[in-house]
Amino acid sequence: MKSFLINKTGLLAFFLLTFTSCKDVLEEYNPSGLTAETVYSTPEGFETLVNAAYTYQRWWYGKEEAYNISETGTDIWTSGSGEVYRDLTQYLNLQGSNAALTSEWREFYAAINLCNGGIARIDKAGLSAALRPIREGELRFLRAFYYWHIVETWGGVHFTTQETNGIVSTANRTPVETFYNQIFEDLKYAVANLPVTQAQYGKVTKGAAQAFLARMYLTRNMNKEALEMAQAVITSNTYKLEANYADLWKMSNLKTKEAIYVVDYAANLAINDLVNTTFNPYGHSRGSNNGHLLFLMKYDDRPGLVRDIVNGRPFNRYMPTRFLLDLYSDNDARYEGSFMEVWLANSTSRPAGMNIGDTAVYCTRKEIPDAFEATRKYQTFDRSKIYNANGTTKDNLRYPTLSKFMDPTRANLNEAQSARDVFVIRLAEVYLIAAEAQMKLGNLQAAADYVNVLRTRAAKPGKSAAMQITSTQVTLDFILDERARELAGEQIRWFDLKRTGKLVERIKAYAPDNAVNLQDHHVLRPIPQTQLDAVTNKTEFSQNQGYQ
């Protein structure tokens, strides 16, 4: 299929130019001047191929395009005033021309082609008998990983396990079940052959393959298998929940034992994935992790405040729905561990009587009496100032800000890149997978027990008993609420709502700004128009239903 399946010469050029993007983590080899066949047939060159297969994850995890695809357009996020892809968030004339979808489609299929080529060539790579199954396990995991993103986003689109060596101008329509058969086959191989730990940080392990396989089983309603795989991860004692939820998001704690699989970003931003015409022409226009920019409210035009490193650079892209803020009880420390409500004065120009370090702005999900507000020197944006009575947005500039991804270690206040690693799968999600599987199997008390592990961790001091749930409270909607409380912003929400058949229902119920243009066909995204224009078999490979 022209333009989304890259030929092997192009991949070799990509290797030569971009492998330094993660050299602090993955050892690399620059085989300058060699042909693709020569490179792939040496152990050193094959390592380069495997390492390159990981890099495509950076086009999704920590990038604005994929936050819009995976988090916004759900029940828990809507558009801030700086929103770029409002068609994804509010389904406003969403079509195949969307640039975010176009970029991700291109990169995912390039990644698939690389994985296919590596799996096909591995027997001739000269790897040792011990190393060969590990590297194949990595490539199979990555192929399953990329194909899951593709099939859940676009449905039964193009599928192949063969490497494309030249330009292909036709594409196939493959049933979703075929995708998942391959995903399960690849992940089972990965589970059987990957080690418990890897020397190089960021490489997939047995536990990561098990956790992702548990997620896949749950997606396909294979609940017994999902439970067994989740339990294998939980009982392995390889991973451990952080005692304090807020500690998960400290820049000093990126290698937390709770993280099962991560997409790593180097502290040296120059060797991440920012586009560079000389060294990395295939890189991203912004590079590194951008999550710290996207959820921040506009604070730096308020009295007593100027932009600084600690409060971040506010792109003001996404804001929480009122529903999301209301999900957290006053006993739940995950609210304070996830959201920021107070901004402290940091400007030399301040209102009379306000000192450096005093509260300058307070944005809260609660209602503050007008009489009390009038006695404060700081500005207050409370519930009725941020949201209308029906839950629609009144002020999309000021709101409680998701603080999980903020990075006070950036070199300067305008730095758009962050070295924060992205937690793709945490142990907390595995507990939620186990809970949902138990619920679907009819074991409601066992489901509640798994949920209560997380709610005990989330409880404020002295509130553990109040945070516990009973078996009678366990429903699919409750588990989706709990997943929102635990995983908000972590690039999984759209997939959760889709796999449970709740996307349209819950957007209409809880995200009125996103519901105006919502239709049933939005459970799939439109295929990029550039790809439809490129194929010659347009009758067989056409746009997803409901899109132009």
TrEMBL record:
<feature type="domain" description="RagB/SusD">
    <location>
        <begin position="311"/>
        <end position="547"/>
    </location>
</feature>
<dbReference type="InterPro" id="IPR011990">
    <property type="entry name" value="TPR-like_helical_dom_sf"/>
</dbReference>
<comment type="similarity">
    <text>Belongs to the SusD family.</text>
</comment>
<feature type="domain" description="SusD-like N-terminal">
    <location>
        <begin position="90"/>
        <end position="218"/>
    </location>
</feature>
<dbReference type="InterPro" id="IPR033985">
    <property type="entry name" value="SusD-like_N"/>
</dbReference>
<dbReference type="InterPro" id="IPR012944">
    <property type="entry name" value="SusD_RagB_dom"/>
</dbReference>
<dbReference type="Pfam" id="PF14322">
    <property type="entry name" value="SusD-like_3"/>
</dbReference>
<dbReference type="GO" id="GO:0009279">
    <property type="term" value="C:cell outer membrane"/>
</dbReference>
<dbReference type="Pfam" id="PF07980">
    <property type="entry name" value="SusD_RagB"/>
</dbReference>
<keyword id="KW-0998">Cell outer membrane</keyword>
<protein>
    <submittedName>
        <fullName>RagB/SusD family nutrient uptake outer membrane protein</fullName>
    </submittedName>
</protein>
<keyword id="KW-0732">Signal</keyword>
<keyword id="KW-0472">Membrane</keyword>
